[in-house]
Amino acid sequence: MRRDWVSAGQPNRHETPWIGMCVPRISVKFLAAEKEKFMEKTESIKVWHAPYHVEVKQEDNPKDFWWSPSTILSYNCLFNWVIGNRGGGKSFGCKEMMIKAFFAKGQEFVYVRRTDTETKAAKKKFFDDIISENKFPGFLFREKNYEFQYIEESLENPGEPAEGEEWKTMGYAIYLSGARKQKSVPFPKVKYILFDEFIIPNAGIGSYLPDEVTCFLEMYETIARLRDVIVLFVSNAVTANNPYFLYFNLHLPYGSFIGRCGKDKCIEIVNNEAYKERKRASRFGQMIAGTEYAQYAIENQFVWDNDDDIKKTDKNYQYDTNIRWNGKLYGCYLHNQALDIILSSKVDPTRKGCIEMNLPNGKFNRGILQMAKYKFILSILFRCYMEGMVMYDSKRVKAELSSLFEKLM
């Protein structure tokens, strides 16, 4: 028996306004046999789906308990970054939304991880939570040869494919380190890309792939081919010091938990108090209370972004020069008596002698390192950095300038 998936507007913990909840077209025979089981221990909600009135299961938890991609997608940006507490439903919400989009509109998706080893482990478990939550009854799911597939389930033999049906593909798994090998592979039906765990925990910029952001953009163009393909970058709250935030000049929203960062870029810091409260009250949450891990896993704080090298200028520091990097000016303040430098957003734009660290085309200006008038200050800057004596007046400045020091190495 065929079940066609249609939009029916069912309230759901990952409700997405323009996609809606997908429910199966159910025969009278199936409804009679399954209704009592389907409604067991639940409060029913009436959903109209002509010509039959179908009752469906209410969620045990409030629908806003888990994170939903609906809010950030309502900003209608191509690239979207979602940073949140561990276990808050970020990956699950994205996967469920993409599967609904496929059943409703035939829109395929791509699931991205960084390396082949990482991807092999993640793709095998891609459907595990979807199946466990029974989000799409009447269908079976699997991963095969880096493709995510589905097939209708037999009514007579639950857990087995329906007779005469074939496995069909709805999505693809790609590892970023090998994406350049797939430039000739077409993906004409892909609408969504999910880059899961895009931030590496407790790692410097050098731990990422060489030229990683460019590699991702090349992969995006291979998939999009001038179409508007939406990307969701998802990660736990680890650090804002990562190649994507630096490349796109992204900053955590100030005074808000979501906001645009320039054209077609949006960032959301997940702040679900209901989820935090439940996690704090759990036995595990109580056991780790007050620890650094609790700040990361529950309170959604960037635990690796410590304040050890954050310092404000005072009377002991003298304003020496300006440094321009990636279009922004930073003031360089030298300590009067010690080998100590503070790089600050506090600048005098009219001051002469600005050190231009970019060429006109935006690339790193390596030639400036050999210019006599800048050798002294740059040699001190490099020495202080190597000895851990470079300070910043804010975490934002630290994140923005980390890519400069990667070039100086």
Structure commentary:
- There is one protein chain.
- The protein is of the alpha/beta class.
- It is 27% helix and 23% strand.
- The protein has helices spanning 28-38, 70-73, 90-105, 116-124, 128-132, 212-224, 243-247, 273-281, 283-287, 292-297, 372-386, 395-408; strands spanning 5-7, 22-24, 45-49, 52-56, 79-84, 108-113, 139-144, 147-152, 168-175, 190-196, 230-236, 258-260, 265-269, 317-325, 328-335, 341-344, 355-356, 390-392.
- The strands form four sheets. Strands 7-8-9-6-10-11-5-13-12 form a nine-stranded mixed β-sheet, sandwiched between helices. It has a five-stranded mixed β-sheet with strand order 17-14-15-16-18, covered by helices on one side.
- A hairpin with a 2-residue loop joins strand 3 and strand 4 (52-56).
- The radius of gyration is 26 Å and the shape is elongated.
Approximate shape: elongated
Could you give the order of the helices and strands? EEHEEHEHEHHEEEEHEHEEHHHEEEEHEH
Strand proportion: 15-25%
| Mean pLDDT reading | 78
Number of strands: 18
**Major sheet:** 9 strands, mixed
- Strand arrangement, major sheet: 7-8-9-6-10-11-5-13-12
What's the helix count? 12
Low-confidence stretches: 1-32, 38-62, 296-300
Distance between the termini: 64 Å
Based on the model shown, name its key terms.
single chain; 409 residues; alpha/beta; five-stranded mixed sheet; 12 helices; 27% helix; disordered N terminus
Concise summary:
This protein has 12 helices and 18 strands. It has helices spanning about 30-40, 70-75, 90-105, 115-125, 130, 210-225, 245, 275-280, 285, 290-295, 370-385, 395-409, and strands spanning about 5, 20-25, 45-50, 50-55, 80-85, 110-115, 140-145, 145-150, 170-175, 190-195, 230-235, 260, 265-270, 315-325, 330-335, 340-345, 355, 390. The model is unreliable at about 1-30, about 40-60 and about 295-300 (pLDDT under 50).
